[in-house]
């Protein structure tokens, strides 16, 4: 069974640009979450999508957005990039069963964004 | 709301010695607790999890953790450290009820193994 796939793995952008990151979850997983990892702030929750709907959102500015497609693949977008957006962006998927959450997330290897 | 505190951002142990990584949690609902490991330039891999049932949980690579409700702790242990255990370890908590599934991570503990 293929794991969570994130593309691109590495990218460099300049301030003011925008970026789109892609995530393909494990087959059959309908929930996709995004996390930002930085040395200073650690792992911070961005948002979670389930069946194309945003189900949960972290405390990030509106420049950070995401979406999920009918095949459960997800994208996140960051507009007007700032230096502080340099981070490892991690995508994770899971398959929550109705009425019960086991919480376990399966992570991709991440997309490392550098903003110059 | 849920949160976790990991005591010690860096821990060093000798190869063959006991590994103990500390995690305390706070949760307004019965928690689910997790330990993840991250190797350089990689994503996070689940080591073990506690949801319900037995409070002593065994995971991969010889790690185990014990859920102690009275101490609000979920410390990670391994009897004998191996060089390959060098990595960063994250404790995480989520709520067990619908609407509280967001996983909240601790700040991480970097484990160094001394040959």
Structure description:
- The complex is a heterodimer of chains A (116) and B (115).
- Chain A has 116 residues and is mainly β.
- Chain A contains no helices and eleven strands.
- In chain A, the strands form two sheets. In chain A, strands 2, 4, 5, 6, 9, 10 and 11 form a seven-stranded mixed β-sheet that branches.
- The mean pLDDT of chain A is 91.
- In chain B, the strands form two sheets. In chain B, strands 2, 4, 5, 9, 10 and 11 form a six-stranded mixed β-sheet that branches.
- In chain B, a hairpin with a 4-residue loop joins strand 7 and strand 8.
- The model of chain B has no long low-confidence stretch (mean pLDDT 91).
- At the A-B interface, strand 5 and strand 10 of A face strand 4, strand 5, strand 9 and strand 10 of B.
Topology:
The complex is a heterodimer of chains A (116) and B (115).
Chain A: E1 5-7, E2 10-13, E3 19-24, E4 31-38, E5 42-50, E6 53-57, E7 64-68, E8 74-78, E9 87-94, E10 106-107, E11 111-115
Parallel strand pairs in A: 2-11
Antiparallel strand pairs in A: 1-3, 3-8, 4-5, 4-9, 5-6, 7-8, 9-10, 9-11
Chain B: E1 2-7, E2 10-14, E3 19-27, E4 31-38, E5 44-50, E6 56-58, E7 64-68, E8 73-78, E9 87-95, E10 104-105, E11 109-114
Parallel strand pairs in B: 2-11
Antiparallel strand pairs in B: 1-3, 3-8, 4-5, 4-9, 6-7, 7-8, 9-10, 9-11
Quick description:
Chain A is mainly β and 116 residues long. Helix content of chain A is 0%, strand content 52%. Chain A is built from no helices and 11 strands.
């Amino acid at each position: 069974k293929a794991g969570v796939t994130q593309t691109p793995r590495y990218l460099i952008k300049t301030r003011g640009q925008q970026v789109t990151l892609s995530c393909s979850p494990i087959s059959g997983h309908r929930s996709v979450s995004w996390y930002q990892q930085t040395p200073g702030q650690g792992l911070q929750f961005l948002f979670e999508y389930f069946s194309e709907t945003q189900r949960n959102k972290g405390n990030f500015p509106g420049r950070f957005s995401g979406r999920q497609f009918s095949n459960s693949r997800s994208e996140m977008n960051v507009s007007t990039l700032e230096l502080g957006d340099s981070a490892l962006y991690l995508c994770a998927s899971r398959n929550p069963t109705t009425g019960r959450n086991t919480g376990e997330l399966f992570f991709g290897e991440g997309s490392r964004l550098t903003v110059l | 709301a849920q949160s976790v505190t990991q005591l010690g951002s860096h821990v060093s142990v000798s190869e063959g010695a006991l590994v103990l990584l500390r995690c305390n949690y706070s949760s307004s609902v019965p928690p689910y607790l997790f330990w993840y490991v991250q190797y350089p330039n990689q994503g996070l891999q689940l080591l073990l999890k506690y949801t319900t049932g037995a409070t002593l949980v065994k995971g991969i690579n010889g790690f185990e953790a014990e859920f102690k409700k009275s101490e609000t702790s979920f410390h990670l242990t391994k009897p004998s450290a191996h060089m390959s255990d060098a990595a960063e370890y994250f404790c995480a908590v989520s709520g067990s009820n619908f609407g509280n599934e967001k996983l909240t991570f601790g700040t991480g503990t970097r484990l160094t193994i001394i040959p």
